Amino acid sequence: MNEKLLEKIGLTKGEIRVYLTLLKIGETTTGKIIEEAEISSGKIYEILDKLIRKGLAGYIVKDKTKYFTASSPNRILDFVRKKERELKEKEDDLKNELPLLLKLREGTKGSHETMLFRGLGGIRTAIFETLESVGSKDEVLAMGLVSSKGEKYNVLWEGWHSLRVKRRIACRAIFSDKDNDYYGAFGKMKQTKVRVLEGVTPSAIDIIGDRVLIFTYGEEPSCLVINNPEVAKSFRVFFETMWKVAK
Q1: What is the pLDDT of residues 155-189, one digit of tens each?
Q2: β-strands 204-208, 139-145: how paired?
Q3: How many whole angstroms separate alpha carbon 34 and alpha carbon 187?
Q4: How far apart are CA 161 and CA 189, in angstroms?
Q5: 50-54, 99-103, 171-175: least confidently modelled range
Q6: What is the CATH number of the domain that holds 69?
Q7: How does DSSP classify residue 147?
Q8: Could you tell me if 210 and 126 lie in one domain?
Q9: Are residues 125 and 48 part of one domain?
Q10: pTM (predicted TM-score)
């Protein structure tokens, strides 16, 4: 049995061991479960109670002794479907709260003119949040693009640009190299123009609307976001200068 899969759907390691033990030995008392599943006696009732609440176990009483049994594995699908319904309800609730949360954030925009995002997750947040702030009349300007930043970042950016294309947002990009698959795939995208200028910049830089995003992909990858129309204008002028000499 793929225990990792059961972990991913929300069962703890203890719950998995007890459930699989019940499936294996059938109706039994806690003593046998403790022995087979190697669970401490102080935890067994807590785990069994959680499995019962999740619909994955049950019990009967014989001569004042509880005998536990596993529910059919088909109940695992029921458990997953229930979690999906609960997540959908939470998603709907969150959508109702988003306007208020966004309004609260708008009131503090001045204090968040510059923000630093770290790691792959941080970069993902920065770029998708920025994409949400622009429309089809805007243009993405990117320079210093390279493939050596790592495949996981290339995949992230390909997904981002696919969404950009769907939203019909144009992009001009200046690569620092072109002998790679990433450059080839990028050049085939719609709403996209590509040129090459080797060694244009030590960091990748994007100008999107009033924001400038400066990326580093070293040991500690990061994205510095500057939300300032004057700064964005200056970088846009710099980009146009580079675009004219790029090939």
Answers
A1: 888 888 889 999 999 999 888 777 666 777 777 88
A2: antiparallel
A3: 61
A4: 8
A5: 99-103
A6: 1.10.10.10
A7: S
A8: yes
A9: no
A10: 0.56
